[in-house]
Design goal:
Layout lengths: L1 E3 H11 L8 E3 L23 H4 L6 H7 L9 E7 L39 E2 L15 H13 L12 H46 L6 H5 L6 H15 L4 H18 L6 H5 L23 H11 L15 E7 L8 H13 L4 E4 L9 H13 L3 E5 L27 E7 L21 E4 L3 E5 L3 E5 L2 H18 L5 H10 L2 E2 L4 E3 L10 E3 L8 E2 L2 H13 L1
Parallel strand pairs: 1-2, 3-5, 3-6, 4-5, 6-7, 7-8, 8-9
Antiparallel strand pairs: 10-11, 12-15, 13-14
Helix pairs in contact: 1-8, 3-15, 4-5, 5-7, 5-8, 10-13, 11-12, 13-15, 14-15
């Protein structure tokens, strides 16, 4: 799940490798206790308007001005299916969903919804003893492991036709696993080499300067006739010019270790030890707990803040929607989520009153897709809008599916689904996030998702980038519009949001691409179905007109 874009860039620059595979990434800065210490141009920019402010946000403030003489008719519940949310954060605690039919911590399912003590939501990746999953394998690793004993060393001609689909899935997963593992083994090797050379260079320079600590400024002042000292100086300054720091190196080391030790490790099996359910049995539901924060809630807290951080408390940031309640549903580990958990999370949110479900996650394989499809159709039948991040691999998902997906196994398209790409604050060639997935058929619109400041656990704030950030902007806009115009159905609201985008079809931008790919220009209109970015002000006007009609 949440990978760090600056690590990708550093690996590319320092290790000369291609872009890092990921479900979604973020350009993650250092969390701070007050937004005053962050770059002020990034604070609340997603709420601004291209015409009024020359910042191409979602025109949220302009929308509130337009609605100032209109009446709020409904509080909208937005379920955030994610890795967990810090429900005690100073800027979101007043907006967290409370199950009023549940008595806290009495060990009884008071509302008979099947979940004991789900006062603020539910955690689908934990057990009844309170032990929670933090890391998981990637889906293709799980698939390879599940079929390995059955198909390893078997030729295609020896496989019966009834098992051919499974065999093909095995071979695809095996190739992906071997490719990714070899890639990360190479990165591990290069990091080790990098660490050795950095240590040698720093030792040489420290001995020359006769000091124990070393800064970039110290290195720049080095003057010597000793060629080895000059080589050490040149090498370290090269690294610094390309973004090197001890912190960034540690981040790269942790990133590679995460992949080799857990995400790509065939012997790492968290779910069987902690939960022990049958992932193919939708009726096997005897697991989970009410810990909606989990062991690592940074991603979900950031997402929740964008949607509904308190706009009136004069601290932190302003979420998009005022009249909103956030329902935490913990489902996403570090690694790939399980289809069963996603399906159950959607159903939980729908059954407990969610109007909108934000889904800032995704993966490349979906072995139990039918479970998710049924949940999507269930949400559609209950008038619930689903909003999904397009993903951050910088690819055309018309050609490479990013699951979950609006296209159901039946071939039908979900009518309550919006897929979101990430845009930046300025209408220039870099208007589209370099990481953002795109596709005229599979991505509906774009929304602010580059350098977005939002919440971090422990009453802190941080700037992130990703379609994971763009998705909640759209969820927030949807909640804002629906709170004033609840007469609209989920399908009508979807139509309003798509038809009212601020359109830039002919504007030329760099096509998203990670790694060493040469930048290529394309028209913005070729990257999504609408050729525009979400616009709350225009959506409010369109909703008003639709309600009148």
């Amino acid at each position: 799940m949440n990978r760090i874009l600056n690590l990708t860039i550093l690996i590319v620059l320092l290790l000369n490798t291609e872009g890092v595979y990921s479900n979604y990434k973020s350009d993650k800065g250092k969390p701070v206790s007050a937004v005053d210490s962050l770059d002020q141009k990034n604070i609340n920019w997603y709420n601004l308007d291209g015409l009024n402010d020359n910042i191409y946000g979602a025109s949220v403030e302009k929308c509130y001005e337009y609605l100032s003489n209109k009446t709020v008719k409904k509080n909208i519940v937005v379920a955030v299916i994610d890795a967990g949310i810090d429900i005690h954060h100073e800027d979101i605690k007043s907006k967290i969903w409370i199950n009023k039919d549940e008595v806290p911590d009495n060990g009884v399912d008071d509302d008979n919804n099947g979940y004991i003590d789900d006062v603020n939501g539910w955690n689908f990746i934990g057990n009844k003893d309170g032990v929670n999953i933090k890391n998981e394998n990637l889906e293709f690793v799980r698939l390879y492991r599940s079929y390995k004993n059955q198909f390893y060393n078997k030729n295609k001609q020896d496989v019966p036709s009834s098992l051919m689909d499974s065999y093909n899935l095995f071979t695809e997963s095996k190739e992906k696993y071997e490719s990714e593992r070899n890639k990360y083994l190479q990165r591990d090797k290069r990091l080790t080499m990098l660490a050795t050379r950095v240590l040698d260079s720093e030792t040489k320079l420290k001995n020359f300067l006769k000091q124990n600590d070393l800064t970039k400024e110290d290195i720049e002042k080095v003057s010597s006739s000793d060629e080895s000292v000059l080589k050490a100086k040149s090498y370290m300054l090269y690294l610094y010019r390309n973004g090197y720091s001890l912190e960034s190196f540690r981040g790269m080391r942790e990133h590679v270790d995460l992949y080799l030790d857990t995400l790509l490790n065939l012997n790492f099996i968290a779910r069987e030890k902690i939960i022990g359910d049958n992932i193919n049995d939708f009726s096997d539901l005897d697991y989970g707990n009410n810990n909606v924060i989990g062991p690592k809630a940074d991603h979900g807290t950031h997402v929740a803040g964008i949607i509904g951080a308190d706009r009136t408390n004069k601290i932190g940031i302003k979420g998009v929607a005022s009249n909103v309640t956030i329902m935490p549903v913990r489902t996403i580990p570090k690694g790939d989520e399980y289809d069963k958990d996603v399906a159950l999370a959607i159903r939980y949110a729908v059954d407990n009153g969610a109007n909108i479900i934000n889904m800032s996650f995704g993966k490349e394989s979906s072995p139990q897709k039918h479970m998710v499809d049924e949940a999507v159709k269930y949400a559609e039948s209950k008038n619930v809008l689903l909003i999904h991040a397009a993903g951050n691999s910088g690819v055309n998902i018309d050609n490479m599916t990013h699951y979950p997906d609006s296209e159901l196994s039946s071939g039908q398209l979900a009518k309550n689904w919006i897929s979101v790409g990430a845009s930046s604050s300025h209408l220039d060639k870099e208007f589209v996030g370099v990481f953002s997935n795109y596709g005229r058929n599979k991505v509906d619109l774009f929304a602010p998702g580059v350098d977005v400041v939002s919440l971090f656990p422990g009453d802190k704030y941080v700037a992130n980038s990703g379609t994971s950030m763009a998705c909640p902007v759209v969820s927030g806009v949807a909640a804002l519009i629906w709170s004033y115009y609840p007469e609209l159905s989920a399908q009508q609201l979807r139509a309003v949001l798509l038809e009212s985008v601020q359109e830039f079809s002919k504007h030329k931008v760099y096509k998203p691409a990670l790694g060493n790919s040469k930048k290529k220009k394309t028209k913005f209109g070729k990257l999504s179905g609408t050729g525009g970015i979400v616009n709350a002000y225009l959506a409010a006007k369109a909703a008003e007109q639709m309600v009148k009609e």
